[in-house]
Amino acid sequence: MRERLLKFLREHQVLTLAVVDANGSPYAAALFYAVDEELRFHVVTDPATRHGKAMLANPSVAGTIQLDRQHWHEIRGVQFRGICRQLDSDERARAWEVYNARFVFLQQPDAILTRELANTAMWRIDPTWIRLIDNRLGFGHKVEWTPPATHGR
């Protein structure tokens, strides 16, 4: 199951992240992500954005990843819940390695992108539950994965 999830997650690059802000209002944002070997998501966003502020106020998040324009019998996607936190120092450096390896365009010189990335933070989402949906295996076929107890530490 873990390998099936990793394969699916590496075939995609955008997740929809659902958050709840300090006032209890829900909000969703689409973010580029990279996934590491431990099935943790790494995302980049400015802490001053609406979803950045929400992640600081309430680290419990949920999200989805799916292909666009699928016929109903080919629907494949992921739903997840997890805990999100802003990274610093060594964790941040390692996460940037994972993220840069996934998005090679970041390695090209670009003044606008460099300036914008200076305002961002690296975040890690440690999933507490992931569901893989694959209608190719039957309508509504789902398998679930829960990380080991030591995951994310």
Task: Describe what you observe in this structure.
The chain is an alpha+beta fold and 153 residues long. It has one domain: Pnp Oxidase, Chain A. Helix content is 25%, strand content 38%. It has a six-stranded antiparallel barrel. Strand 2 and strand 3 form a beta hairpin. It is globular. The mean pLDDT is 89.
What fraction strand? 35-45%
Instruction: Provide mean pLDDT, rounded.
Output: 89
CATH fold call:
Pnp Oxidase, Chain A
CATH classification, class level: Mainly Beta
Give the overall shape, derived from the CA principal axes.
globular
- CATH-level-2 architecture: Roll
CATH superfamily: Electron Transport, Fmn-binding Protein, Chain A
Largest sheet: 6 strands, antiparallel, barrel
Distance between the termini: 21 Å
Outline the fold blueprint:
Layout: H1 2-10, E1 14-20, E2 26-35, E3 41-45, H2 50-57, E4 60-66, E5 76-86, H3 89-102, H4 111-117, E6 121-134, E7 142-145
Antiparallel strand pairs: 1-2, 1-4, 2-3, 3-6, 4-5, 5-6, 6-7
Keywords for this structure?
153 residues; alpha+beta; Pnp Oxidase, Chain A; six-stranded antiparallel β-barrel; 4 helices; 38% strand; globular
Summary of the model, kept short:
With 153 residues, the protein is α+β, with helices and mostly antiparallel strands.
